[in-house]
Specification:
Chain B: Its cofactor is Mg(2+). The complex is a heterodimer of chains A (372) and B (417). With 372 residues, chain A is of the alpha+beta class. In chain A, the strands form three sheets. Chain A has a 13-stranded antiparallel beta sheet. In chain A, helix 1 runs antiparallel to helix 2 and helix 5 runs antiparallel to helix 6. Chain B is an alpha+beta fold and 417 residues long. Chain B folds into three domains: 169 residues, Alpha-Beta Plaits (2-Layer Sandwich); 53 residues, DNA polymerase, domain 1; 143 residues, 2-Layer Sandwich (Dna Ligase, domain 1). Classes of the chains: A alpha+beta (372), B alpha+beta (417).
Chain lengths: 372, 417
């Protein structure tokens, strides 16, 4: 194999690859990236056995071929090369080395045979549809903060992507929860997505997927089966196993009858919560919200370090209410709101609270209160 | 060289016998009056209390421990001559020493004696760090003026008082840090008093095995042995960075300890690190219903203790011992601290369900750690488990009923399994 690639293009492909590679693994080949050159392009493939990413970029291919090198080392080298450099990669399979040359820099990297590289078995996808990058970006960006990290509830370690029924008809829906807060985000259902099996997309996949979604104009080809999900742009294909488990019935968790309505400027609210929470150093900092006619008093009382209070003007017309929340959760849901006011719907100080943006029900958040 | 009579506490200058009372129990060391970090360890504490309270047992081998399947908590020195050791399975202890008198522990009595000893130690210094009922670190730095006597004398007086007033003997280790003080107290038990001075520290450690280090168990020892480290001398040959890269933060500690350095302070208020209870079954079992019953009962015990102390734990720990005595341990960090039996049980049960080994087991333990005050505990519910709040309410009600009518007034069906 002998190829030449522009450094910037190469860096983008290699950094995508090295982020998939599991840092602590015991199987040497899994630390490597598979480089395959043919025709006028070269592909970079990396896997952790659950996720596989393939990035195909144009290159001058003098001699086709394939090899594998350590992804992290290769990435570091490319990253440190000067901008605009032309990088030559030459594989010497007899010596078990690949040379990397750019200007006056020369590196020789140990290789492992391409035959040893595990390629994810291709599978049949039941559903194939196309979605604009901003649509997927919104679905995952607004839900991922609620993904659980608790390993015993592995079925919560991802975003549940499925087809559901809403007031507006069928929707493509993403839900994530850790049992303390929940995010439910809807998007119009692409016609071809009808009948799609519901899948739990793992946290790491959600993170990798994000890198495919930066271009507002990009069309993302989405393929879904019971066991796998694939997201592809013309250059990058991300394939991932889905979490083998049943996502809990979240619909009964979303409160229907919460009648006490508070409307507040989300940014002002978030800043105030952040300020009062400063006095507490506990891991789960509780913020008390005292609601009265058009008035919200936020307070934190940390016996060891001090207390804080701040008053905010809000729209609220119901009876007095006192309710506590984890400050971090309030900040997280408030930061999801970017266009209109945040609307909170309460029931009592012990019941889950619902939050949405204005009257938009395509993104709702549920948060469990805390005793204060 | 300064010397001290451990019987009459007279101080003099070198000699095999005390010039005033002729006792041979003389302690002399060049740094005797300069060292101030001590470790006090009672001799066969539980067994000594039993012998004190029942003089008939005085010359008999006594083992304190539980049941046929239980383990030895403490063996008196007569039983130790036969090879009986702490933590040994009871059946094995009885094979070695069939004539032993086995006594079921009376923890409350031991705790009461322990409090008396602690009070004596606290008269000497506020810096007393108890490690368990029968051992503690003491920092006597700067107390010589106040007491009109150096730490060594005060410590000799302490063990003498313990023997005279409580009928309990103890051994003292005196050195310049906790690590060495603890090693020293073990050197000539029972009724020992050993000193490790700064000047002799390196020679003292030289050929001793690294397994003496607290926290280096069988696994740690094996890992060290693979690196060719068996003695402190082996350890000292290692470069600091190499130790760190091979053993992580433990490597850093090892590097210091190999040089006899230990910068941990004697901290009187070292809070409990965790609460746990465990049970050894009368027969090994793989029956999941029986094991589930044990998880519940242990969770309830842990919860009772946490509630009594007003604390809660963020981490739940499940411990299982297989029939071949190998240990399996699982832990889960919770979203917020809990002290509720229900929460501890459910978490331990989830951990249990994740273990792929199907038994049989001989022991099961449940515990909590990363403790914090109960005020911040169980403050929020679980969206996916709406019944949890109701169960918590039921548990609080159960606690109140038990307060009035006794612990057995109301129990869960699953605790009868």
């Amino acid at each position: 194999m002998k190829i030449s690639i522009e450094r910037g293009t190469l860096l983008k492909a290699v950094s995508q690859a090295q982020s998939v590679v599991e840092r602590r693994n015991t199987i040497p080949i899994l630390a490597n990236v598979l480089i395959e050159a043919d025709g006028e392009s070269v592909s970079f493939r990396a896997t952790d056995l659950d996720i596989e990413v393939v990035d195909r970029i144009p290159a001058q291919v003098e001699r086709a071929g394939a090899t594998t090198v350590n992804a992290v080392t290769f990435h570091e080298i490319v990253r440190k090369l000067p901008d605009g450099a032309l990088v030559n990669l030459t594989d010497d399979s007899a010596a078990g080395r690949m040379s990397v040359e750019a200007g006056r820099s020369h590196f020789s990297l140990a290789t492992l045979p391409r035959e040893d590289f595990p390629v994810m078995a291709s599978s049949e996808y039941e559903t194939n549809f196309s979605a604009k990058a901003p649509v997927l970006r919104r679905l995952f960006d607004k839900s991922k903060f609620a993904i659980s990290t608790e390993e015993t509830r592995y079925y919560l370690n991802g975003v549940y992507m499925h087809v559901s029924e809403s007031e507006e008809g069928q929707v493509l829906r993403c839900v994530a929860t850790d049992g303390h807060r929940l995010a439910r985000i809807d998007a119009p259902l692409p016609p071809e997505a009808e009948g799609m099996p519901g899948v739990i997309v793992p946290r790491k996949t959600v993170g990798e997927l994000r890198k495919l979604l930066d271009d507002d104009e990009a069309d993302i080809a989405v393929s879904v089966s019971e066991t796998k999900v694939r997201f592809a742009t013309p250059e990058i294909t991300l394939t991932s196993k889905v979490i083998d488990g049943t996502f809990p019935d979240y619909t009964r968790v979303i409160p229907q009858g919460n009648a006490k309505r508070m409307e507040v400027d989300a940014a002002d609210f978030a800043k105030a919560v952040d300020r009062v929470a400063t006095v507490s150093s506990e891991r789960s900092r509780a913020v008390k919200m005292q609601l009265d006619e058009d008035r919200l008093v936020l307070s934190v009382n940390a016996p060891d370090s001090g207390n804080a209070e701040e008053e905010l003007a809000v729209a609220y017309g119901d009876e007095r209410l006192e309710i506590g929340f984890n400050a971090k959760y309030l900040l997280e849901i408030a930061s999801q709101v970017d266009r209109e006011n945040a609307v909170f719907l309460f029931n009592s100080s012990g019941d889950p609270t619902l939050m949405r943006e204005g009257n938009d029900t395509s993104a709702v958040y549920v948060v469990m209160p805390m005793r204060v | 060289m300064p010397a001290l009579c451990r019987d009459c506490l007279a101080r003099f200058d070198t000699g095999a016998r005390c010039p005033s009372c002729r006792s041979p129990r003389v302690l002399s060391h060049p740094e005797l009056c300069d060292l101030s970090i001590a470790h006090m360890d009672c001799d066969a504490f539980y067994a000594s209390v039993e012998k004190r309270d029942n003089p008939e047992l005085r010359d008999k081998p006594v083992i304190v421990g539980g049941g046929r399947r239980g383990v030895v908590s403490t063996a008196c020195y007569v039983a130790r001559i036969k090879g009986v050791r702490s933590a040994m399975p009871m059946f094995k202890a009885l094979q070695l020493c069939p004539e032993a008198v086995v006594v079921k522990g009376r923890m409350e009595t031991y705790a009461a004696v322990s409090r008396q000893i602690r009070a004596m130690m606290e008269e000497m210094t506020p810096a007393v760090e108890p490690l368990s009922l029968d051992e503690a670190f003491l920092d006597l730095t700067g107390t010589a003026k106040l007491h009109g006597a150096p730490p060594a004398v005060m410590l000799a007086r302490l063990v003498k008082r313990m023997q005279d007033e409580l009928g309990i003997t103890g051994s003292i280790g005196l050195s310049h840090n906790k690590f060495l003080a603890k090693l020293a107290s073990d050197l000539d038990k029972p009724r020992g008093f050993s000193v490790i001075g700064e000047a002799e520290t390196l020679d003292f450690l030289e050929n001793r095995p690294v397994s003496l280090i607290w926290g280096v168990g069988a696994t740690g020892r094996a890992a060290l042995e693979r690196a060719g480290i068996r003695t402190f001398a082996d350890l000292r040959r290692w470069d600091r960075r190499d130790l760190h890269s091979r053993f992580g933060s433990m490597g850093e500690r090892l590097w210091h300890l190999s040089r006899g350095e230990d910068h941990r302070r004697v901290s009187p208020n070292a809070p409990a690190k965790g609460i746990s209870n465990e049970t050894t079954f009368s027969e090994d079992t793989a029956d999941r219903d029986i094991l589930d019953g044990h998880i519940w009962r242990l969770a309830e015990k842990v919860s009772d203790r946490a509630k009594a102390k007003g604390i809660a734990g963020r981490v739940v720990i499940l411990k299982l011992k297989r029939a071949d005595h190998s240990l399996l341990s699982r832990r889960l960090s919770l979203h917020e601290p809990t002290q509720m039996a229900d929460g501890i049980y459910r978490t331990a049960r989830r951990l249990f369900d994740q273990v792929t080994y199907t038994g049989p087991y001989r022991l099961l333990g449940v515990g909590i750690s990363e403790l914090s005050p109960a005020s911040g505990a169980d403050a929020s519910g679980d969206l996916l488990d709406p019944q949890a709040l109701r169960r918590a309410g039921a548990e609080r009600a159960t606690d109140r009923i038990r307060e009035r009518f006794g612990h057995d007034a109301i129990v869960k069906g699953r605790s009868l399994r």
